[in-house]
Amino acid sequence: MSQSFPPEINIVTYNQIPVVEVNHPKCQAKISLQGAQLFSWQPAHCSQDVLWLSEVEPFVEGNAIRGGIPICYPWFGGVKQPAHGFARLRLWTLNQYQITDDGVELLFKLDNDAEIKMLLNETCTLTFTHFSEEAAQLALHSYFNVADIEQVAVFNLPSDCFNSLTQQQQAVSSPRKITENVDEIYSAEKSPSIIADQDNHREISVEHINASQIVVWNPWHKVTSSMSEQGYRTMLCVETARISSLLAKGEQVSVKISVKSN
Ligand SMILES: O=P(O)(O)OC[C@H]1O[C@@H](O)[C@H](O)[C@@H](O)[C@@H]1O
After folding, report:
1. Global pTM?
2. Active site at which residues (predicted)?
3. What separation, in Å, do the N-terminal and C-terminal C-alpha atoms of the chain show?
4. Is 251 part of the annotated catalytic residue set?
5. Catalytic residue among 84, 141, 184, 208
6. What are the structural domain ranges in the chain?
């Protein structure tokens, strides 16, 4: 694609990683070409970023970026190496863009395997399409930026989940409050998940479209790469996933994120 972009789009380098910066009256956003990873999105009406990025992220080639929306594909977790699949470690290409008064649309491709369309405006919609013949898993592993994890409540999750830490199914009270290391897999029967971010006076709605699971993760004090000791305090992952029900060729999964101030 031509290297001359309209003023709303800029390609810059963060340490070793090429990044697309979007500057539009409706929103500002940043996407790493490694992983086609949206790691900053701030709609005009918000005074804070909606997505969390580790303040110690080094932006080193081949290192998973800690924050934003990593695309975990074509597998989830440590079933194989690298953990969470190779898509977040590879360079994607920006194949199309469109800028209108309403916002910016970007299309990134990972060879002939997959693509992700990003519709960025006052809301944010990512639509992933799986193209390869082989069935695959996926997680749009969204890290949300919250003022204080101890004042956060997540509404509209199912009343039970699979706890990946104990490897057991367990009952969960509603709304879900986070006060320790959590790593939970819910069925995606209920959508959207609502993150009440009390001290930022806002609610983040996370709509899971064509997902089979929702993963809720915060490592708390567990040592985690590219994350500071206090990093867990301002983040929460609520992930849109296809773990048990594999993606067939041509299938799409989307996450739609919107923010309401209160
Ligand atoms: O450190 P990674 O590979 O980015 O993974 C982070 C976390 O991702 C979550 O999706 C998993 O449920 C956790 O088990 C995992 O620890």
Report:
1. 0.98
2. 141, 239
3. 42
4. no
5. 141
6. 9-261
